[in-house]
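Input sequence (510 aa), recorded before submission:
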Amino acid sequence: MIPIGPLRNQRHMNEMIIYALSDKWDASNWIRNNQPEQCESVKERQYAASITMSLFFDSMGNREAQIPERYARTFEWVFKEPRRSEEGQFLWHSFPKWLEEDSDQIYWVTGKPGAGKSTLIKFIAHDARLHRHLSQWTDGAQLLIGRYFPWNASVEALQKTHEGLLRTLLFEILKQNKSLVARVFPGRWFLLELFNGALDLPEPKADELMRAFRALLSETSKSLKLVLIIDGLDEFEGDHTRLTNLLREANLKPWVKICTSSRPWNVFKDEYINNPMLQLEKLTHDDIELYVRENFQRSLGFQAFQVTNPAMATTMIGDIVEKAQGVFLWVSIVSGLLKEFFQEGCNQADLESVIDGLPNEVFQLFTYLWDRTNVKFRKEASEYFQVMRAFKEPHSVPYCLTFWLGDTAVSADIKAEDITREYVSKAVESLARKLVSRTGGLLETSFLPGEPEKSRVDYMHRTAADWVSKQWDVIASSTDENFDPNLWVLKGEVIITKPITSRKSARQIG
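Predicted structure, token format:
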């Protein structure tokens, strides 16, 4: 029992907070006796908001925002009945049927790296048909949906850890039902009551998050059902068996459904191979053909080539679709590459030579792009990759503005009043162009129109980060020995700290 009385000092208060949030004291009984069923009063709504916001972290939602939207009219098949093979077998398990019916199994989306799993999961998570099919399962019950999109290439740990997963799911779900907050986080609610709301709640630790998640699961019932959509299990750091155990525990509740995705690693195959599932690269032939055909049709160079070489144009599209082997990432890179050749007015022999020389695998394709990089740009590309790695340090965020200002081409004496919102927007735009030409698009910017100063640099895909890691010695050798990426980052961050106060006081940004 926590002794309630006058606080002697700050240390006493800190000890009370630690104790209340630990597993040494169970506040759930106190909550049952003191907390109303509904979160209705102003004070209760404020407490619920404070607790929910204590789960938030800056990079929450970043990965989902970076995932490309599906190309128009692709992936429609996932909400339809499965097609059959020539032998009459279904090519995948019906996703609508799994949504509509009671099921004690997790739905697994698997596929090769770059096949488009994250794009498919994002499409599923936000399409109106998801709710329409789930409504048959919920049968009038309240439906809560939690989504999480991890990102292994991120420099921020919470984008790829169990703690980040639980914080994000709890944050999303508790926003949808405030009356659950006190029962899921009884210790935090008790502390707010004790201090009359005048308390900055600390970030939750792993054990508290696990207790809260289990408390949430125990709240599910015939009248309150929960759906979890979790992308990229292979993106998580640490023990993947621990992760599958967590999802299995959650899925034991009859009022919980889980849809997840991953690469076909053994740890996931062992867990989900007998579950309802689909293997993405086996199902996207028509989607990829649609993407290639319409993408090329927007190229004036291809239109001219198609008129003069109609048979070759048709054959080329078919060859690219087959060579892609269901990998959307491969075909998106190759399409961009070939459109450059069309723009330059290539002939049939040149085009055949280029297509024949394209590697089939994404990793080999990245090497192909690196080898094609203009020699004078390769040094800059190496510098950018090394700067990106320097951001692996804790609490360091790869903002576009830091990348831009850290460059030796930018004077360290730049004045605060010169760094206006327009300057930042143009700097991000220029950096985006340089990253495309120098790194072949392996690094890219995520531009935020309303807040350009928060735009970031990131890898275009997990496989790009993996490739850079494996080719590191080759990449790093392309710069001078005395190049120090840490000085680049330091310079950029020091310059950024100068104008922040000035810009805000001058109201140039904000």
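Checked by second reader. The chain has three domains: 62-185+203-282, 285-358, 373-506.
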